[in-house]
Amino acid sequence: MAEPLRIALAGLGTVGAGVIRLVEANAALIARRAGRPIEIVAISARDRSKRRSVDITPYTWEDDMVILGERADVDVVVELVGGSDGSAPACARTTIEAGKALVTANKAMIAHHGLELASKAEAAKVPLKFEAAVAGGIPVIKGLREGAAANEFERVYGILNGTCNYILSTMEDTGRDFADVLSEAQAKGYAEADPAFDIEGTDAAHKLSILAAIAFGTAVDFRSVETTGITRILAADIAQARTLGYVIRLIGMAETDTNGDGVERLFQRVQPHLVPFDHPLAHVDGATNAVVAEGNFSGRLLFQWRGRR
Ligand SMILES: NC(=O)c1ccc[n+]([C@@H]2O[C@H](COP(=O)([O-])OP(=O)(O)OC[C@H]3O[C@@H](n4cnc5c(N)ncnc54)[C@H](OP(=O)(O)O)[C@@H]3O)[C@@H](O)[C@H]2O)c1
User: Fold this and answer.
1) Using CA positions, which residue lies closest to atom 15 of ligand 1?
2) What burial class does residue 281 get, using C-beta atoms within 10 Å of its C-beta: 0-12 exposed, 13-18 middle, 19+ buried?
3) Contacts of 205 (CB under 8 A, 6+ apart)
4) Is 80 exceeded by the pLDDT of residue 161?
């Protein structure tokens, strides 16, 4: 068997700890499928002394995540810290400039700096992978880019934020108000202490801009996403929608349209939608993500995952 692929992990939170568990539990299977083992050699996070859900003692600790990519024994840096600015993009740039592959789950960073990082990665001839940045565990980027590569997409849309979907579907099931359900979501860990990023639609807009770039072959353009969150949805709106045969979901949608003047443009919107009962997205409940892509030959493709947010 070939030499191990040596990875470094930046970030040991929900996703980082999950990656350690997965790499340890499925080590033999991954080695068999990939033709070489994956070995975690170095890790970094904010606080070395923090109690963690995984044993990190087998791995070398680095205080500064930015230098992980410069280590001679690291082939790939996996960035699982988050944030559009600060340590995460600094780590990403250093890694690529050092000629190492970068894997990231950081949608905020890809939405804001994806083009710059992709250009740097292309120049350095290193892979830049961000599958988990959109809809977590759903392999939707690979699905659209490779699985459905021969299709022209007319529209791509979905439920891209689990926190909002948990709140809306719980309001629908219980008749309770937004603020009440938001507090419960925070208590259960489905919403952050500062939930603005989720409930105002920014997180979904980050993901939509990445999804749109993949589906339509355009540059990531987060700034042109029209975004409206769910903070103004009332229990009464949901009840009224129900009597008319609809549920309310926060939907991110990207589609091309000539808008009457013959010039094709990409439109990207995140907003609460009325979804008819007979549409598959009407049955996506709880902290779940789902993506629908409509290809001109594949027809409607549905990707679904139960995410955390
Ligand atoms: N959670 C999900 O379901 C999910 C799904 C898809 C994508 N993502 C993305 O994955 C990334 C990580 O998410 P998460 O939920 O795992 O976040 P998280 O639980 O908050 O973990 C963040 C990690 O980053 C470390 N960190 C934060 N600031 C740092 C800094 N300045 N320098 C070094 N380390 C720092 C933290 O260190 P300490 O542990 O020492 O505090 C922690 O280990 C984010 O980009 C997120 O958007 C998350």
Assistant:
1) 14
2) buried
3) 111, 222, 225, 227, 252, 268, 270
4) yes
In this predicted structure, the answer to whether residue 308 has a pLDDT above a threshold of 70 is: no
Q: Which residues of 67-84 are buried (b: 16+ CB within 10 A; e: fewer)?
A: bbbbbeebbbbbbbbbeb
Backbone angles phi and psi of 188, in degrees to 5: -85, -5
207 noted as active-site residue: yes
Q: With cut-offs at 50, 70 and 90, classify the pLDDT of residue 290.
A: very high
Instruction: Report the atom number in ligand 1 closest to the C-alpha of 136.
Output: 6
Global pTM reads 0.95
What's the gap in Å between 17 CA and the centre of ligand 1? 10
**CA 79 / ligand 1 centre spacing (Å):** 9
Please tell me whether residue 136 adopts helix, strand or coil conformation: coil
Task: Give residue-wise pLDDT tens across range 49-89.
Answer: 999 999 999 999 999 999 999 999 999 999 999 999 999 99
CATH numbers and ranges of domains, the chain: 5-133 (3.40.50.720), 141-305 (3.30.360.10)
Q: Are 166 and 185 in contact (CB under 8 A)?
A: yes
- How many helices (H) and strands (E) are present in the chain, helices listed first? 10, 12
Q: Of 97, 70, 83, 55, which is closest to residue 8 (Cα–Cα)?
A: 70
Ligand 1 atom with minimal separation from the 15 CA? 16
d(CA 48, CA 223): 36
